[in-house]
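REQUEST FORM: STRUCTURE PREDICTION
Request ID: SP-0412
Submitted by: Lab K.M.
Chain count: 1
Length (residues): 176
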Amino acid sequence: MRFGGMVGVRSARSGGSGKGPRKRGALRNAALVGVCVAALGLVPAAAVATPGSGVSGTVVAKGTSESKLKIKPPNGPTDVTFREITVQPGGSTGWHTHSGQLIAVVKAGTLTRTLDDCSVEVTPAGTSFIEPAGAGHRHIGRNLGTEPVVLWVTYLLPEGSELSYDAEAADCPGEK
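STATUS: Completed
RESULT:
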């Protein structure tokens, strides 16, 4: 009788799977690779970017949303328009809709919006919001404060669309 292997190890010749030590070795190698990759993440990377020159930038407005922004650009070509809007104390936008979404930052003042379902949203300076697209999302923005409301608005509209469309006022209790 010949003995050609290690005690307790099955070989492919003896009918075993032959995967015991090999499988452990492969797992050990995979773990070693994982540790090496993780360690590389801790080593500072060499700077590969080139310094810029002749470029300046100014943050003109910043607002933080209350939750995750759900942006849905139009299908097809999109007009992207950036606009500053000022609403004087006592002023309003009138009831209107948009054919695409708007991302707005309240730069100054406090904007009070009444939505199609008669809910009211108050957005002070330093906050941002999205106005959804479509006729089912009519709304009005009002300045109920004593200082001008300044909005910085980015419109994402289907190519060739107007910035807004007049809409009938919602039948909300207490509305003029």
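NOTES: The helical segments are 20-42.
Reviewed by: T.R.
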